[in-house]
Amino acid sequence: MSAAALTAFSGVFALGAIFAIFGSIKLKLQERIKIDDAKASQLISAMMFSCLIFSLAIGAVTPALGFKVVGLLGFAAGAICVLLLAHASSYGVAMGAFLALGFAAMCVNTVGNTLGPMVLFPGEPAKASNLLNVFFGVGSFLTPLIIANLMGRVGYKATVSLIAVLLAIPISWTIMGTDFPSPEGGFSFSRAAGWLLHPAVLAGGAALFCYISLETTLGGFLTTYLANHKVDAAKATNFLSLFWICLMLARLFTAFFVPSAVFPYYVPVLALIATAALLLMVSAKNANAAVAAMLIVGFVLGPIFPTLVGVTFSKTGVAPEVFGMIFAIGLLGGIVTPRVMGGFSASGNIRKGIAVLAGLAVALVVISAVLSLAIPNLAQ
After folding, report:
1. How is domain 3-175+186-374 classified at the architecture level of CATH?
2. Triad 107, 113, 116: Cα angle to 5°
3. Which of 30, 137, 270, 364 is the most buried (most CB within 10 A)?
């Protein structure tokens, strides 16, 4: 496998690990720095706001800097930030680390999700994006799995520091790689700004707003939801890992077994099933029912993000600026919705927060149908 492909896979793996770190350490971090759910929700919202700003910036400058430089910056910054979280003893330090994680996340995200479709399955961006984002799932489930099973043995600092080491490993093959393609067009502010008016960018961004609201909020608060069903912290974290495994398996299935002709209809159908499963989470009477509904949500959410990215690229072409813009619009959901959920959780009404997520899933059905069926592909 080429260094460029390894870097792309490593980028989405690192993004999964970074996005899963909050939910994986949330309960222990709250104990260490003495904050409640509402305050903790500000940490993930701050990271999402940072991601929004840097998504636009990194997407715009990647054509000038190149994939290699942006990837190296992302892997190094991610490792340093997670190391800071391992040693955080105050809310201020944790806030600083999560803000800086936004920069790291958007570097590895832009590299993974725009370099990958250029070197894998040319002409089939949705298929390439689903395969790439299997490794997002790997990073997302390995992170809570490692933390849940090692924290009781070696302690918080050593366990979280191990995640930092994992994020640094891809620096080795990225720095030695010589086969990175150049993003087309170079940097042009007018070219980057011009994409804002493209209907596929607007629709893709709105769809990602709904999706990222769902994934970020569930990833951050599923352990709290399960605690509401009297599931202990260690088991809840392991169930969180199963949630991420479901995302990964669904993307793997999509990459190899779903025909390209199905993709225009795929997200609306998956979002409809997600709506039903979220309503089951709201009405679950016991822990077993809650876990089953949660895993169904994970499986049907899995292919939505990469398929939305691929469908958008099919209407615009593969461009870092396009990805940066739709992801930035989407990240507004990651800023607003976890704060809403934190308020519900702090007041003991987390089920009402899940009901809000079901409403967002309904919106995703409609918006994704507009993106897929009402906006013509580039070739047309």
Report:
1. Up-down Bundle (1.20)
2. 115
3. 364
- What is the residue type of 37? D
Helix intervals (H) in the chain:
3-33, 37-65, 67-86, 91-110, 116-119, 125-132, 134-154, 156-168, 171-176, 189-194, 199-228, 233-257, 263-283, 287-301, 304-316, 320-346, 350-374
Sign of CA dihedral 82, 88, 90, 92: negative
SS3 124: coil
Task: Name, in order, each residue with C-beta under 8 angstroms of 312's C-beta and a sequence gap of 6 or more.
Answer: 200, 201, 203, 204, 322, 326, 371
- Taking the CB of residue 203, how many other CB atoms lie within 10 A of it? 24
Each residue's pLDDT tens digit, 173-223:
999 988 898 876 555 556 666 777 789 999 999 999 999 999 888 988 888
Q: Residue 10 is which amino acid?
A: S
Per-residue pLDDT tens for 49-100?
898 899 888 988 888 899 999 999 999 999 999 999 999 989 999 999 999 9
| SS3 of residue 170 by DSSP | coil
Token pair for residue 277? Answer: 């499963």
Neighbouring residues of 80: CB distance < 8 A, sequence distance ≥ 6:
100, 164
